Amino acid sequence: MEAFRPLGFDKWLFFTTLVLLTLGLVMVFSASGMIAVAKHQHPFYFMIQQLLGAVAGLVLILVMLSVRKPLYQHPVFILALLVLTLGLLVLCFVMPSVARTNRWIILPGFRFQPSELAKISLILFLSWYFDCQKDKVAEWPALLVPAGVVFFFVLLILKEPDFGTALLIFGICGFLFYLGGVKLRYFVSLGLVSAPVFVYYAFSAGYRLERIQAFVSPDKNLLSLNFQVAQSKLALGAGGLLGVSLGEGVQKLFFLPCPHTDFLFAVIGEELGLLGTLTTLFLFVIVLWRGIVISLRAPNIGGQLTAAGLTLLIMIQALLNMTVVLGLGPAKGVPLPLLSFGRSSLMTSLLAVGILLHISQRKDIGRSPA
């Protein structure tokens, strides 16, 4: 039996999220002011958009904290969310292309990236499925449904194309398969089926090969393939220990591409220095710590898998973004959760935190405190 504890949510995770959110709003404004003036004739344009996403995300957190029943574990809610996400992904292909991609739902004054919602939808679906099928998960037929759903979603996202997000989702889902009790020998079969698909899409676009080439040879093509990473390293190096001071960074002035989105971490390094980057990393370590604690204390298998998957989602995205900024990995277009500009990413990240906080409010009456 479970007990719901109002206001018993994890305070460490809640306040760490607020700190990250505040830092993100400040740094998005600092990084985007000049770009906003050039593109939209308003220095606060990107900050206002980010603030709207933050408010919407905080509302989602408040809703999750106030609802007594775990809706995210109810089959009707999970399947409805899965179908909605699928419909939005398909709808992307009839929307106007943005930079020769079909990743967005575009309406007047509104844009949304369904692949961000797909991350949450699949985690909730797999957690629920493996909880319901925990006695059959060792049998191959029980894996056909979850594997088929994951492959279909991944193929749609690859088709957009968004290789980085598809690979990220596939990896997180594989982790949930493992935690759900799937035998390791089945992963060989799943790998044999999926590997050719990813290899095909990896080599089907020249720019992906260029990114790999740029990563392998970081000292070559500094004015073309490696321009972003080179400018990112300059920003980090210029920051030193304490940074050049908030708002005084130079690389964001049309030298560093995407300073308020994919390369916000570089702006943090330049303006807040090594102290700022280490503080940011430390805040994400707190999120990881509390996510693990929430997962271990969850009252049922579904809650444990959900908490583990959502925590992994936030942390992998953060680490992938930081490695690209530091030149330790090829560019992937993965934003820094809770910090980088992007309402779709911000809202889904805050929704993930809201679900984690709700799980932390539930307690197994028959279990002693961890």
**Mean pLDDT, as a whole number?**
90
Strand content: under 5%
- Say how many strands there are: 4
Structural class: mainly alpha
Question: What order do the strands of the largest sheet run in, or round the barrel if closed?
Answer: 1-4
Shape: globular
**Biggest sheet, open or closed, and with what strands and sense?**
2 strands, antiparallel
Q: Unreliable segments (pLDDT under 50, ≥5 consecutive)?
A: none
Give a description of the structure.
With 370 residues, the protein is mainly alpha-helical. It has one domain. Helix content is 66%, strand content 3%. The strands form 2 sheets. Strands 1-4 form a two-stranded antiparallel sheet. Strands 2-3 form a two-stranded antiparallel sheet. Helix 1 packs antiparallel against helix 10, helix 4 runs parallel beside helix 12 and helix 5 (144-159) runs antiparallel to helix 6. The longest helix is centred in the C-terminal third of the chain and has 34 residues, at 264-297. It is globular.
Report a brief summary of the structure.
With 370 residues, this protein is mainly α. Helix content is 66%, strand content 3%.
List keywords for this structure.
66% helix; two-stranded antiparallel sheet; 370 residues; 4 strands; two-stranded antiparallel ribbon; mainly alpha
Helix and strand arrangement:
Elements: E1 2-4, H1 11-40, H2 45-66, H3 75-91, E2 105-107, E3 110-112, H4 114-132, H5 144-159, H6 163-179, H7 184-204, H8 206-216, H9 227-239, H10 264-297, H11 301-325, H12 343-360, E4 362-364
Antiparallel strand pairs: 1-4, 2-3
